[in-house]
Amino acid sequence: MSGILLGALLFWACAWALNEWLVRQKPASPAIKRLIGILVPAIFGITILVIWEGIVRGFNVPTVLLPPPSMIWTRLVSSLPTLWADFRQTFLKAVLIGYAIGCLAGFVVAIVIDRSPFLQRGLLPLGNFVSALPIVGVAPIMVMWFGFDWPSKAAVVIVMTFFPMLVNTVQGLASASPIDRDLMRTYAASYWQTLFKLRLPAAAPFIFNALKINSTLALIGAIVAEFFGTPIVGMGFRISTEVGRMNIDMVWAEIAVAALAGSVFYGVVTLVERVATFWHPSVRGGRA
Amino acid sequence: MTASAPMAAPGAGSNASTAAFRRVAESKTFAILVVVLAIIAIWYAFTVYLNAPWQLDTYRRDGQEWTAMQLARDTMAQERPVLPSPHQVVAEIWKTTVDVRPSSKRSLVYHGWITLSSTLLGFVIGTALGILLAVSIVHNRAMDKSVMPWVIASQTIPILAIAPMIIVVLNAIGLSGLLPKALISTYLSFFPVVVGMVKGFRSPEAIQLDLMRTYNASTSQTFWKLRWPSALPYLFTSMKVAVAISLVGAIVGEMPTGAVAGLGARLLAGSYYGQTVQIWAALFAAAAMAAVLVALVGIGQRLALARMGARP
Amino acid sequence: MSMQASPSPQGGGERNARASVVEASGLGLTFQTNDGPVQALSNVDLAIGKGEFVSFIGPSGCGKTTFLRVIADLESPTSGTVRVNGMSPEEARRKRAYGYVFQAAGLYPWRTIERNVALPLEIMGYPKQEQRERIKRTLDLVNLTGFEKKYPWQLSGGMQQRASIARALAFDADLLLMDEPFGALDEIVRDHLNEQLLELWKRTDKTICFVTHSIPEAVYLSTRIVVMSPRPGRVTDVIESTLPRERPLGIRESPEFLAIAHRVREGLRAGHSYE
CATH number of the domain at B108-307, please? Predict the structure, then answer.
């Protein structure tokens, strides 16, 4: 069906030209600027989908290898109950609970070791070191300890999110400038007063940085942990089994759900960050 | 004319040694050492604690008398412990690296090499592609506005989840072994490098770019003389992230093919057959590999930046 | 010798009659650095009476900021003594005896101006109603009424520094320690703020210790000028100002003003400050 392929290529050329024209516009109103800012990547994304469809249909690529977007969409729509059950198991249970516990634990430990420079000197390099390790590898151990169900996946998420939160919180707590700390000394403020009124608000940008990083790590951790063994539900489970059955369109549908979940999760954390750190130059738009 | 104020005089003679002791106590290495030793001690304690129930059951079944010392020793040497003791793991690593021929299928060296080769291949290709894409993003507005948002958005997507699919699909069209895993690693290491290098290529201050314009420098001259050197620190930082995630990708990529070879395969096999100590040994090997790779990038970073006159 | 004869014949007796807010005797502070010991302060004898406006002037390294920080218990002396309100600096700090104004405004960007001024009041436990009154009063003193709900980044540098001064005035402390508060501002804003500071001083009758590296500023603001020099940090001259308390900006061109400024320069030169 070379007609579809030709159509796709034509669409690509037009879309590219349109984008090239759009980026050269210099609109006066910020609203139009923002609209263009969203339109250009959207056009690019749609173009990718169109080309994908065109190539798969045009070259008659076997759908077990690479299904066209249209087929993925049909499969997605018809499998909503399964996708929802998987989402509930992986995201709502393993990811959210593990994320909450892991971030909270990292935060609490950071506060606990705040009064001990010795512990900070010892734990921080360790935290940085652990962040580079393939932590998903602890998944089989967690399965051994906590069973096949979601608690073991939540445990993996906890381990993955703990260290970035710890390292960033400690960095954030240290970020208050000497002048700010001297000021608190001149007020004879207690340790807790200084912590709550100065150091925690000053640490907020760092803490949110970790929360954003962890939102991605949590989802990855939960899904990959499911590759190592899980009851018959879960996003990772679905992906690995459908891959085994060569139902690649179902795999893509599951991936689409995971992608959506990941970006929405990240987006929500970013929104909260904007509200909580409204005062930070990066959020205000860079004005000093 | 003012007389100099007398310095506070500490006890004579002990001055030098107390100062040296204080320097050691306040050093980072000492703190890390103490923390690591504490972790090992806690680990041993937990080994006994977690393995004790099964051990006590065994004693009861065999009608055996036991002492605390015996319990401690036995819990540290179980075949299928809940938590292997540190020396058990070290012994297993020793057994599967030094005591075995590197080419044997039971050698951690063999499996480690399999994982390492796809990690490195994927990392190198991913970094190269990432730099290329970053260059085009920085120099072409359309690329910047259309592709960059997707690169940033992709960081929120659990890309690792598609690893099994890529392996199986590529196997189906005849590509198997090293290449599909390397492709996963490529895909994973690509994104941090793009994001980091775009930031790096854009890092020169406005006044520096203006200066280049006053010289009427061409785009390529500005790139090689200004943008590329400014971006080097960012390159090494992203490469550290990229190499670590490349390793994770290689490990995950080894699982779908029925867990035949590689560290990921050893992890999965150990998990299936309940070989706890094997799992821990493979995990430690992977962790050591990650640490060495990141350290190597760090050394490269220090060498490259030192040649550019960066402060140590 | 650390203190030279001051022009006022009644100087010593006058000072003893007024209560001494700060008394330093043989004060010294030596820092241990990687390059060896550094004498930041050496043998400083000084008494500051209530209601005075004392400027400390000298180049960097002369110990003026260090002296202020010792009074504030932000540094500890290695020799000699210093009493604040008759107590050790630590006790004085615990009793919140002074307000400190830093070189940078140091306002919290996550708090509005009025909540920034409220910061010390919250920490020291003032009741809510009193907090409101004090905030209103001090913001009025520094002419920032109307800017209560603004955030620091919405204000200019000069206004931020005024808010910082208001914060230091909000609670009951008779001593105000100011460390080059106007150093980062341009000269025109600075002149304006100098005038306002004098006005403030007259209205609140606080004792002010003011560190600066600007000779005109020191001469314009103070009742007494302490000239310091580096290596080691020490006092080379103490000048009682003969200028009247009413000082319009134009006084800075008067012969009296220039004579005092000249004497300050001589003191700095004697301490090798220009080398």
Answer: 1.10.3720.10
Instruction: Reduce the DSSP state of residue A277 to 3 states and report it.
Output: coil
User: Do the chains contact at B247 and A125, CB–CB below 8 Å?
Assistant: no
Handedness of CA A130, A134, A135, A138 (dihedral sign): negative
The CATH architecture assigned to C9-97+175-272 reads 3-Layer(aba) Sandwich (3.40)
A&B contacts, CB < 8 Å: 169
Within 8 A by CB and 6+ apart from B238, the residues are B130, B192, B193, B195, B196, B197
pLDDT at A286 over 50: no
Domains in chain C: boundaries: 9-97+175-272, 106-172
> Between A105 and B178, where is the model more confident?
A105
* pLDDT for res A189: 93
CATH architecture of the domain formed by A79-287? Orthogonal Bundle (1.10)
Q: Where are the domains of chain A?
A: 2-61, 79-287
Token pair in block for residue A51 = 């080309």
Question: Are the beta carbons of C160 and C103 closer than 8 angstroms?
Answer: no
C 10-29: CB under 8 A from B: 26, 28-29
Please choose, from the candidates B4, B26, B77, the residue with its C-alpha nearest in 3D space to the C-alpha of residue B47.
Answer: B77
Residue C6: predicted pLDDT: 45
Percentage above 90 pLDDT, chain C:
64
pLDDT value for A210: 93
Mean pLDDT of B11-32: 75
Surface of B (129-148) touching A: CB under 8 A? 141-142, 144-148
Place of tokens 């198991």: A89
Residue B263: exposed, middle, or buried by beta-carbon count in 10 A (0-12, 13-18, 19+)? buried
Q: Which residue of A179, A182, A184, A187 is the best one to mutate when testing the C interface, meaning the one whose CB has the most C CBs within 10 A?
A: A187
C146, C204 contact by CB (below 8 A): no
Dist. CA C49–CA A164, nearest whole Å: 54
- Could you read off the pLDDT of C205-253 as tens digits, one per residue? 899 999 998 999 999 999 999 999 988 888 999 999 989 888 888 888 9
List the beta bridge partners of residue C83: C23
Nearest Cα of chain A lies from the Cα of C59 at a distance, in angstroms, of 21
Query: Helix H segments across chain A?
Result: 2-23, 30-58, 69-78, 80-87, 96-112, 117-131, 139-146, 150-173, 178-186, 191-194, 200-227, 235-244, 248-276, 281-284
| Option in A24, A144, A240 nearest B256 (CB) | A240
Which amino acid is it at A65? L
pLDDT of B1 reads 38
Answer yes or no: are the C-beta atoms of C200 and C245 closer than 8 Å.
no
- ipTM reported for the complex surpasses 0.85: no
Cα gap B253→A152, rounded to integer Å: 21
Contact assignment for C41 to B5 by CB distance below 8 Å: yes
Report the residue from C74, C94, C123 with minimal CB separation from A182: C74
Q: Which of the 8 DSSP states describes residue B252?
A: H
Nearest to residue C218, comparing CAs of C73, C64, C69? C64
Identify the band that residue B142 occupies on the pLDDT scale cut at 50, 70 and 90: confident
Count of residues making up chain A: 288
For an interface test with C, which of B2, B7, B15, B22 has the most C Cβ atoms less than 10 Å from its Cβ?
A: B2
pLDDT of residue B141: 87
Query: What percentage of chain A reaches a pLDDT higher than 90?
Result: 33
pLDDT at A136: 83
pLDDT digits (tens, 9 = 90+) for C89-142: 999 999 999 999 998 998 999 999 999 999 999 999 999 999 999 999 999 989
pLDDT at A195: 95
Provide the residue ranges of all domains of chain B, joining segments of one domain with +.
14-83, 108-307
Q: What's the pLDDT at B11?
A: 45
CA dist C169 and B156 (Å) reads: 49
